[in-house]
Amino acid sequence: MSSSFEPDTENDYIPQNILLTGGAGEFSFFKIPGFIGSHVAILLAKKYPQYNIVVYDKLDYCSCLANLDEVSRLKNFKFVKGDIASPDLVSYVLNEEHIDTIMHFAAQTHVDNSFGNSFNFTQSNIFGTHVMLEAAKCHQGIRRFIHVSTDEVYGEGETFETEAMKEEHVLEPTNPYAATKAGAEFLVKSYHRSFKLPCVITRGNNVYGPHQFPEKLIPKFTNQLLRGRPVTLHGDGSNTRNFLYVEDVARAFEVILHKANPGMILNIGGNNEISNLEVAKKLIEILGFEDRMDELITFVPDRKFNDLRYTINSGKLEQLGWREEMSWEEGLKTTVEWYKKYTDRFGNIDDALVAHPRIGVAPGAGVTNESFGRKGGKERATVLGDN
User: Fold this and answer.
1) pLDDT single digits (tens) 140-176
2) Looking at 177, 191, 208, 245, which residue is catalytic?
3) Does the annotation count 177 as an active-site position?
4) Which contacts of 370-376 are long-range, i.e. CB under 8 A and separated by 24 or more positions?
5) What is the percentage of the chain residues whose pLDDT exceeds 90?
6) Among residues 89, 267, 38, 288, which one has the least CA distance to residue 167?
7) 56 belongs to the catalytic site
8) Which residue in 100, 152, 307, 324 is the catalytic one?
């Protein structure tokens, strides 16, 4: 991953020891934790050898340590297996690693799962964030706390004429996942105001690209098609999402890390608003199955509630120097090629490819840590980065 951004060492924020939560699993912004977190960790560890990067992840069902292979042997990188809901361990890591910067990606993120069992979302997204904030408050030396949220906290754009939402827009979440992310934001704001914790909040569009667990739209459809199965579109497929390539998002966090001031809220949005049906058709085209278009598209019952669209204004972030670089077509082709080569790193993903997955929401349900642990996950996690 390349990046042309260069921080101003005299005027920008320059971190030393960064704790990045959720860097091996899925991540909060489609929504962003280990998926996006892994790309951010890779960018920072490779480009800034003077920064120490500590990834903290509990290795949930959608986690994959192989996402961090290309930095696992760097001297400035370390992986720690741990749960953000464990106050003692979080505090220990902050002190032991002399952390001055927290980038909090870890979250339960899949909307379908939140309709099945929302308690896990409250535990991870609200309580877990509260633990991180309290530990940061008590730790001497935290100079930045970057909290990764989602555009879903705004609620849906009610029509296709709805103006793009700015950071000041009222929060009106419409599903349990989004509600827990909004709740977490209020905690972050309270710690910033009451305890002067130097917090920044980001709200991002749907992200796609390599490393994403196949329960999400693009990798799910890709893997269904690669297995000769039809895609499973919710409702009539007319709902739109604004898709942003993951490396563009990683570059956004590079800019935010160095340029954003405490108290700022920043949207991270792209310019690729596309219906789910059009996404399916484009993937079928890329894979060369155009002659089977009709048989490879099926429509299934919709979610309990499915937001029509999300549209956000990223003007504030663009003023800091970020721009979307990857085109929709090129990003999608790159993503499909990656899944052709690396889908097996997630182990058995059959439960993720059903129309309405409920993975990891109940004991014995769906894919577990063992699905990827067979490649050395648990034993390797305890030593990864101990150079």
Assistant:
1) 999 999 999 999 999 886 667 778 999 999 999 988 8
2) 177
3) yes
4) 371/61, 371/346, 371/347, 372/63, 372/64, 372/65, 372/66, 372/345, 372/346, 372/347, 373/59, 374/347, 375/65, 375/66, 375/345, 376/65
5) 65
6) 267
7) no
8) 152
